[in-house]
Specification:
Order of helices and strands of chain B: HHHHHHHHHHHHHHHEEEEHHHHHH
Shape of chain B: globular
Number of helices of chain A: 3
Structural class of chain A: alpha+beta
Distance between the termini of chain B: 79 Å
Oligomer: heterodimer
Chain lengths: 91, 513
């Protein structure tokens, strides 16, 4: 069995919470784990953060590049556009 | 201009990078980029370089400035409310001493290394990514120096970290790692640091350890740690991109890259053994064991990464299975070394108390009670009788990783692992097959290693006695070293916590010894 998990880790703070909620909404297979000060989200194959979902949750414009402010770490290949921040495996 | 269509992210980034690249007309390209070819890496088309993060300069400054504002507001708050008194226990600060004196100079080395690598890459995407990373690393060392400044007011051991980095025996382990990378070519440097170290291994340092810092009340450290690691996400992406790029450009690059992955995985893994003891022994409140962290971040996450790279003909790093075999004993073996040499370190050492031993037994049911508990109990008994054990003989060091040769055989935790090679009539010693292979591949490089023990014996370190060497290190005997329970740090902590009587007794006892 091959392992194709990707992950993202975000700081556990006010700004990251709606991003985490957006990830939950758009990635049904994601597993969210809480550690002190940190939230780690694993998902099989790919994980996407959509601009639109975050904007709906926070009620203002949101640029996916804002993710840098509360991001801790990632695993997977990054694909970044104006509308989404995506992590994926090559297969 | 106002009528022009707004450029999308890709186009904006294209303008920043590709438009910076021009063909030289009056200089030969190989004279401008003299290091581009000597490693044997063949690049046919730099325009195939993909930029996964498309940060333009304006966005870069904007987000980095915001990170800085957040970071310094927390560091200021920490200083203003005497945050150093709110950590779980002053013993915790010793993990921080090791981190700040071991890692901060590496951040500065990374700043220099990426500035040099960026200058040497003929492709603009790679140049810009290296330039941003170089600036990031300078930011990291600055934030860590500000954190050192705060802790240095209250605790021993932080006073001369830069001087110590060049001299103290265990700091030669991280120093030699970066010196090795910086004296390689640009492609190997980026493979070593961005890929093998940052992508594959630093999560072990910045995730469970920083989370542990938060758990122990150290908001200054967790904040600079997470702020630094958010840059690491870009750095890891650079590391992965450079690997994929080299592999896609020419099949001849595959064996070269594989050899670098093998080498730098093993060197990084040996360096991380310091982190294993920080997690298992130095955090008063623990988040997870080294073994759990290794399973989560290396076996699972690293496993997925190497499955990804299989399509290019890359396999898992050589000897990764040894790291898996060692996960049940690494931290215990390394902490034992520091307990032995606690009189020559710039931080304090101690034995785990009964509740900590219970935690270690639970986390390491197959190894702790069988191999390590009896040893610690014996040392505790000796300490109770006034015979705190310090090892006065100097250890054999591994010629490659420079760690004392205390690691055991992959399949036998009761036998020290010992390997050696002969080169030009001299015999060189290694802690593992991984370190021996690295030496055998480039002996002319590693025979030049500055090994602390050899240097002491050659009379290059201030003298032959421990006090002379400590003075040469700028380490104050009786303040910066020895057992935590006999230290000023402990006595001060008790005083600050309103337990002055016990503190005075400790100081008096230490003064009499």
């Amino acid at each position: 069995m091959t392992n194709n998990t990707v992950y993202i880790a975000l700081q556990n703070n006010e700004e990251a919470r709606p991003i985490i909620e957006a990830i939950e909404q758009d990635n049904r297979d994601a597993t969210i784990e809480h550690f002190p000060a940190m939230v780690k989200i694993d998902a099989p194959g790919q994980l996407v953060i959509k601009r639109e979902t975050v904007e709906e949750l926070i009620g203002r414009d949101w640029d996916p590049q804002e993710i840098h402010i509360n991001l801790i770490s990632i695993s997977g290949n990054v694909d970044e556009t104006e509308d989404a921040f995506r992590l994926e495996r090559l297969r | 201009m106002s009528n022009a269509k707004r450029m999308n992210l890709r186009e904006k980034y294209q303008r920043l990078t590709r438009d910076l690249g021009w063909e030289p007309s009056y200089q030969d390209k190989s004279a401008i980029y003299p290091q581009a070819e000597f490693e044997g890496i063949k690049i046919h088309d730099w325009s195939k370089w993909e930029d996964p993060f498309r940060l333009t300069m304006d966005a870069y400054w904007k987000y980095q400035a915001e990170k800085e504002r957040k970071l310094y507001s927390i560091i200021d708050a920490f200083a203003q409310n005497n945050g150093q008194l709110n950590v779980t226990d002053a013993r915790y600060i010793n993990a921080l001493k090791l981190f700040l004196t071991g890692v901060s100079p590496l951040e500065y080395a990374a700043h220099r290394g990426f500035a040099m690598a960026g200058r040497q890459f003929p492709g603009v995407g790679a140049q810009v990514a290296c330039q941003m990373q170089s600036i990031d690393e300078l930011r990291h060392v600055q934030t860590q120096i500000h954190t050192i400044a705060q802790y240095n007011k209250y605790f021993n051991g932080f006073h001369d970290w830069q001087h110590m980095h060049d001299r103290v025996w265990y700091l030669s382990v991280p120093k030699s790692f970066f010196d090795d990378a910086m004296s390689a070519g640009p492609f190997e440097f980026v493979t070593a640091i961005s890929f093998s170290f940052e992508y594959v291994l630093t999560n072990l340092l910045f995730m469970p350890f920083m989370s542990g810092a938060a758990y122990n009340g150290d908001m200054a450290t967790v904040t600079f740690g997470f702020s630094a690691q958010s840059d690491e996400s870009r750095h890891m992406t650079l590391g992965l991109e450079v690997i994929k790029f080299m592999l896609e450009q020419d099949p001849d690059n595959v064996p070269i890259v594989q050899k670098w992955i093998d080498k730098w995985f093993w060197r990084g893994y040996r360096l991380l053994s310091l982190v294993s003891m920080m997690m298992d022994y130095m955090l008063p409140k623990r988040v997870m064991s080294w073994q759990e962290a290794w399973e989560m971040y290396f076996e699972q996450n690293g496993g997925a990464l190497f499955d990804d790279l299989e399509r290019y003909g890359i396999r898992k790093p050589k000897y990764w299975e040894v790291s898996v075999k060692e996960k049940k004993r690494l931290s215990h073996e390394v902490w034992s070394v520091f307990y032995n040499y606690g009189h020559a370190a710039a931080f304090h050492s101690w034995l785990p108390d009964e509740s900590e031993m219970a935690w270690l037994s639970e986390k390491y049911p197959e190894t702790f009670d069988k191999y390590y508990r009896p040893r610690f109990e014996y040392w505790a008994e000796q300490h109770a009788r006034g015979n705190r054990y310090y090892n006065d003989s100097l250890p054999q060091l591994c010629q490659t990783c420079q760690i004392p040769m205390a690691f055991t055989e992959p399949d036998d935790p009761t036998t020290i692992c010992y390997r050696s090679s002969e080169y030009q009539g001299e015999r060189y010693h290694f802690c593992s097959d991984g370190c021996k292979d690295i030496f055998d591949d480039e002996p002319e490089k590693y025979v030049q290693a500055w090994l602390p023990v050899h240097q002491i014996y050659q009379g290059n370190c201030g003298g032959a006695s421990v006090p002379e060497v400590l003075e040469w290190y700028h380490l104050v005997h009786g303040q910066d070293n020895l057992d935590y329970r006999d230290s000023q740090d402990y006595a001060n902590w008790m005083r600050w916590k309103g337990l002055a009587e016990e503190a005075e007794e400790t100081l008096a006892k230490a003064a009499n010894e």
